[in-house]
Amino acid sequence: MIRSQRWKGAAFTVPFQLGFAFLYLLPIGYAIYQSLFLQKQSGLGLGGATTEFVGLENYRHGLTDSAFLSSILRVVLFACVQIPFMLLISLLLALFLDAVTTKAAGRFRILLLVPYMIPGVVAAIVWINLYSPEVGPLSPLGEVFGFDWNFFAPSMVWPAIGNLLTWHGIGYNMVIIYAALQGVPRELFEAARLDGASELRIALSIKIPFVRGALVLTALLSIIQMLQIFNEPALFRNVTPQTVSDSFTPIMIIYNQAFNAGNYHYAAALSVLLALILGIASFLFYRLTSKEAD
Amino acid sequence: MALTEKTGRKHGADRPPTRPVRRLTRPDPAARSRGGQRFLLLGLILASVYSLFPVYWLTVAATKDRVGLYQSNGLWLSGWHLWDNVQQVFTYDDGIFLRWTANSFLYAGVGSAGGTLIALATGYGLARFDFPGRGAVFACVVGSFLIPIALLTLPLYLLFSAIGLVDTPWAMLIPCLINPFSVYLAKVYTEATIPFELLEAARIDGAGELRIFFSIVLRMMTTGGATVFLLAFVNTWNAFFLPLTVLRGEENWTLNLGLYNWSGKRLESGVDVTSLVLTGALLSIIPMAIMMVAMRRYWRTGVTLGALK
């Protein structure tokens, strides 16, 4: 390619590069810079606040802050239960879709994708009202079967949020897995059937290994989202502040430190820490799953 | 052109099944037992009921007055008050709901349109030119998928407040212009639809690079561009953390933010706004649903393509 042409090509990316620098690199740099300072009240707090350079003090504080650490542990544990559960259902549904007639598959795919069309905040509002003991239909339904469930009780909050996330996510994940399934060469099934393999056997030993990549990807996307979960717990907190504290998830802590406690420098350090944890978790997960494939 | 034929077939595959091409790739239904098919259909029906049940309940709830909402069976109609409820949503607080709807459309529509144009140009530049620093730009695109929103949004809030943008529509519009995922999609689409030979031919004919981009590349990328736009639109429409952080006064809020606020009101003021929240939630789904159904061809390819590449 001619030299001048190359530079013209680079010019097409200039608006993006400028925007990226302003909206991504600058804020990240600014957050790191701010995280090295701390606002201190001088004396008895009468002389006004001064901002002091404190080095990594905010990070040390973050790594020993039991509220922050337990919020991370909380979402990690939750992720370990909810993500496999959601992906298992998505995989099953994708396998089901793959095994029925084309016409049926097309219809069910649309129906199963309805939750994906609903914004997360609206989905949370709808489920919170379904759970509500006053207006929701689930409490009287439980009574019929002899359950006395209260979805806003502390022990039920995570299952309630888990169900909401599963409901919202299965359609999207199913479509990705289903698309991967469509790529399996159909001759493989014919050959396996001729050899006398059952449909279940074909699903287990041909289809599932083939969509491994799609499963890893959907899991990775879900992990990234889960560590940053904010909307759903925030909406639950709207209704039951006594069970969902303002330090329920890492992002909720960061938001409150920045906007309610006015402790911006500490919030910046926590968000850098969260980014590092997210990077490490994604890397570990990726390594772990790609090694198994060898 | 060989190329349009290719994309044409790809989308044809989404259409119902009478085409022989499609049949070959489907399992032969005759190979299945009746009972097995029934079991699969039952599973799919149960999953569909689970998926649709909340939407059904929401629709029924929006037709009830307060008494019906609290006292009647949630799964069946009790009186018909849908129009009263809708009217109440639109007139509450001097019609603020309409304002939020317009804001959501403004941010998602204008932000995504600008973002899509920038993303297409960037994707084209990355896919079809080899310039120094290209790898670094692409690394930024992919790397940014891992950045938590809090790490960007909080400092962005401070930067915006320093230049006086907080609590103006710009605080929502500007961040929408730069969307790394759109760039990634645009690059993938360019690689799939714009052949090098075509660009060479246009250059030999004396067309300038800008002209090639605007009159050839953009025209051939309408499908890809529509997908990128749609996904960005949905993303912005659904956004919550960014508007919550940068928009303070309720006249600039989005629908999501407004509904969040209404749903919290129930406790503070002692006024019951449940039916307001539910009817508002139902109304806020409608534009998204219309858009998704009308453009389903695009987002289906977008969802799967973005994920599998």
TrEMBL record, chain A:
CDD domains, per the entry: TM_PBP2
Transmembrane regions: 12-33, 72-96, 108-130, 156-181, 210-230, 264-286
Primary location class: membrane
Domain called ABC transmembrane type-1: residue spans: 72-285
Record's bilayer topology term: Multi-pass membrane protein
Compartment(s) of residence: Cell membrane
Alphabetical list of InterPro entries matching this protein: MetI-like, MetI-like_sf, UgpAE/MalFG_permease
Record has Mitochondrion as a keyword: no
Entries under Gene3D superfamilies matching the protein: MetI-like (1.10.3720.10)
Keyword Acyltransferase (UniProt): no
Keywords: Cell membrane, Membrane, Transmembrane, Transmembrane helix, Transport
PANTHER family associated with the record: BLL4140 PROTEIN, DIACETYLCHITOBIOSE UPTAKE SYSTEM PERMEASE PROTEIN DASB
Family note: Belongs to the binding-protein-dependent transport system permease family.
Protein name, as recorded: Sugar ABC transporter permease
UniProt lineage: Bacteria, Bacillati, Actinomycetota, Actinomycetes, Kitasatosporales
From TrEMBL, chain B:
TM annotation in the entry: 39-59, 105-124, 136-158, 170-189, 210-234, 273-294
Topology versus the membrane: Multi-pass membrane protein
Protein name: Carbohydrate ABC transporter permease
Gene3D superfamilies in alphabetical order: MetI-like (1.10.3720.10)
Family indicated by similarity: Belongs to the binding-protein-dependent transport system permease family.
InterPro entries named among the record's database cross-references: MetI-like, MetI-like_sf
CDD domains cross-referenced by the UniProt entry: TM_PBP2 (cd06261)
SUPFAM superfamilies according to UniProt: MetI-like
Chain ranges of the ABC transmembrane type-1 domain: 101-294
Keywords for the protein's UniProt record, in alphabetical order: Cell membrane, Membrane, Transmembrane, Transmembrane helix, Transport
Organism lineage: Bacteria, Bacillati, Actinomycetota, Actinomycetes, Kitasatosporales
Subcellular location: Cell membrane
Any Pfam family matching the protein: BPD_transp_1
Keyword Ligase on entry: no
Region of interest called Disordered, as start-end residue ranges on this chain: 1-31
Entry keyword Mitochondrion: no
Domain of life assignment: Bacteria
